[in-house]
Amino acid sequence: MSALFTLALFALYPARVFAKFGQQICSANPFLDPKHDPCNALEYIANNTLTATTVGMYLAVGFCHIFSSFKWGAKWMSSMTIGIFTYVIGFIFRFVLHNHPDSKGAYIVEYLFIVLSPCAFIAAEYVLLGRLALDLNAAQHLRISPRRVTPFFVASDVTTFLIQQRVKAAGGSISISSNDVKTNKLGSNIFLAGLALQLLSFALFTCMYIRFLYLVHRHSPEVWTRDRNSRLWYSDWRVLACAFLVSCAGILVRSVFRVIELSQGFKGPLATSEGAFYGLDTLPLFVAVSAYVPFWPGRFIGRQDVSPAPHASHSDDSEKVST
């Protein structure tokens, strides 16, 4: 996934070029009336206190992920860790926007990193499901082979990522600085399509995961209760399963918000509300990534102190699962 963020960096150059077109007359004092300043893409002055708090919280989670990956393994979750730090980069540029609210370049960089970094969070979720199914020897309960879950959904993620970053670089930034209604609408619609496809893909993934848990509980009780003899309740793999669900829920809330936000346009009420941004984007994503701080997957997957659960061996179970 790190290669995807490299693509985002390459997108910055054309974005800056496009931003030079359609120059508008900016307010003499950008802090006087930011809501009606034609050059202020946010239509408000970014709050430095909220920005600093967010940066601190995400950095804390990111370093916890790094510590956990070295202590308990599961370095295959590194895409989420990398995504946390690139997400923070976006917020650092909000400090720039606080002092220079009319800076289109700062806004484009901020928007790219904040909107696209969660693609790395989603990729980690895809990897986790495949690893969990293999560790439980419960591959038969997935519609897709555990080894194909990640490539299948990441391919979808890459497609939506490319749509978003290219359109944001071209059409999206034009819509910020251009007075052309058709250009504005085209950029918004294509970018919206990318976000909607990402939402659909992750919603299907979440449904597949919920179905997986249901089938394991119903048809593989020996797998479901694999850790029943553990002395510590938080060493049970089902605790990780719950954290996984919480993380997916956070990403879904954020994805729904982004789709609704963009359906209203880059200048819509949600896109220009700092409260909505923090409450429906930053907070749900924080829940999604922080869920793994106390329940790091490496503590549950690949453990040496538990015996692998046997494969389902009853033919009647196989018939039930296939229905």
Automatic annotation (TrEMBL):
Task: Note whether Repeat occurs among the keywords.
Answer: no
Out of the domains of life, which is the source?
Eukaryota
Q: Name one GO cellular component term.
A: membrane
Its localization reads:
Membrane
Q: How does it sit in the membrane?
A: Multi-pass membrane protein
Record keywords, A-Z: Membrane, Signal, Transmembrane, Transmembrane helix
According to the record, the signal peptide region is 1-19
Q: Pfam families annotated for this entry?
A: RTA1
Q: Does the keyword Transmembrane helix apply?
A: yes
Residue ranges crossing the lipid bilayer per the database entry: 76-97, 109-129, 190-216, 237-257, 277-295
- InterPro entries recorded: RTA1
The protein's name in its UniProt record: RTA1-like protein
Q: What organism is listed for this UniProt entry?
A: Schizopora paradoxa
